[in-house]
Specification:
By secondary structure, the protein is α/β, with parallel strands linked by helices. The chain is about 40% helix and about 10% strand. It contains 13 helices and nine strands. The termini are far apart. Its main location: Golgi.
């Protein structure tokens, strides 16, 4: 009986150990799920749109440049992301054999070969530090802003996603461009992936003069071929434009930089990537056309873009969170945001 009792106790102890292990596994799984939940849906929530607009109305006024803040952010971005060297894929930072990991997809990469290596510029083509930079978003807040002359006075102008610069918009958005982004989805939707005709694309690009075209060719696998076709189209037509491919390593580190500052989204907007680039390369940054709300400060409706009202995919970007971060930088004097009509002279109030 004793020996049978001993065996019985041993079995019971083993069952208890298994039970505790099972419970620990369940608790560990729950902890992982909770951590993932807070990572994707953090406790912090961006203020309501109305509260943000009231804050903007209270804070508008004379803007004071803060050189200490500008220097601090340039150092932070240099330390984390090194925009001077890494913002574009170059022969210097991406030699033959280097693996470029796609920043927008897991388990996809491109190994630089002789063919793709030949498409890269030698090294950073920008003469840094740049002086007064303008980063121009496409928000409908630009309509009737009369910011065109203000924008064109900047020494380096960045624009997002091949925006129209036709005569009807010049007074509000200006005419000059030094760098313009082009999302591969635009090549697909607007120009049929350049598979049938290239003339419409070539003609539409002339408005950007001799600027740089900045494309995320190595962000998502489906975007690589359209980006390369755009490169060859411009090269074959002896265009004055220079193609730059966004470095996926730079885009990834910039994403982590802003995630650590409260911007939680599947992907940052193109505009925030450009602002990050400008903060890392420019002595002074002014931002136009960044307004993610459907109502303006005058309580009138605002279209999503200054040229149309086509909305982006829901939950893809976190535009209000981005705006809050940029507005904090405006208040601190690190950059300047124009969110209404531009004053007739520099140094006026922010209307």
């Amino acid at each position: 009986v004793d020996s049978c009792g001993a065996r019985h106790n041993t079995r019971g102890e083993k069952m208890l150990v298994r039970c505790y292990r099972a419970k620990l596994s369940v608790w560990a799984a729950l902890c992982v799920l909770v951590l993932c939940w807070f990572y994707v849906f953090p406790v912090y929530r961006v203020p309501r749109d109305k509260d943000i607009m009231e804050e903007v109305l209270r804070q508008r006024g004379i803007w004071q440049k803060n050189q200490t803040g500008i220097d601090l952010y340039r150092k932070l971005l240099t330390d984390c992301c090194n925009p001077q060297r890494m913002f574009a894929v170059t022969k210097e930072n991406s030699p033959v054999g280097k693996v470029l990991w796609y920043d927008g997809e897991f388990y996809h990469w491109h190994t630089v070969n002789n063919k793709t290596y030949s498409l890269f510029v030698q090294d950073n083509p920008l003469d840094v530090p740049l002086k007064k930079c303008a980063v121009v978003g496409n928000s409908g807040i630009l309509r009737h802003s009369k910011c065109g002359r203000d924008i064109d006075q900047a020494s380096f102008i960045m624009r997002c996603n091949l925006p129209p610069l036709s005569k009807e918009y010049v007074e509000d958005v200006g005419t000059r461009t030094h760098l313009v982004t082009a999302n591969p989805s635009i090549i697909e939707k607007r120009f049929q992936n350049l598979l049938w005709s290239r003339k419409a694309f070539v003609d539409s690009m002339k408005v950007y003069g001799s600027s740089y075209v900045y494309m995320p060719a190595f962000t998502m696998k489906p975007g690589t071929d359209p980006s390369l076709r755009a490169y060859y189209t411009l090269a074959d037509t002896s265009s004055n434009l220079t193609m730059l491919f966004a470095n996926p390593e730079f885009l990834s580190t910039v994403g982590k930089f802003w995630k650590g500052r409260g911007v939680h989204a599947k992907r940052l907007s193109t505009g925030l990537y450009l602002v990050s680039l400008a903060l890392g390369l420019c002595e002074e940054v002014t931002v136009y056309g960044f307004w993610p709300f459907s109502v303006g400060l005058d309580e009138h409706p605002v279209s999503h873009h200054y040229y149309d009202n086509i909305l982006p995919c829901k939950w893809f970007h976190a535009m209000p969170e981005e705006f809050v971060q940029l507005w904090h930088l405006h208040k601190s004097g690190t950059l300047r945001m124009r969110v209404g009509r531009c004053p007739p002279q520099e140094g006026g109030t922010l209307d």
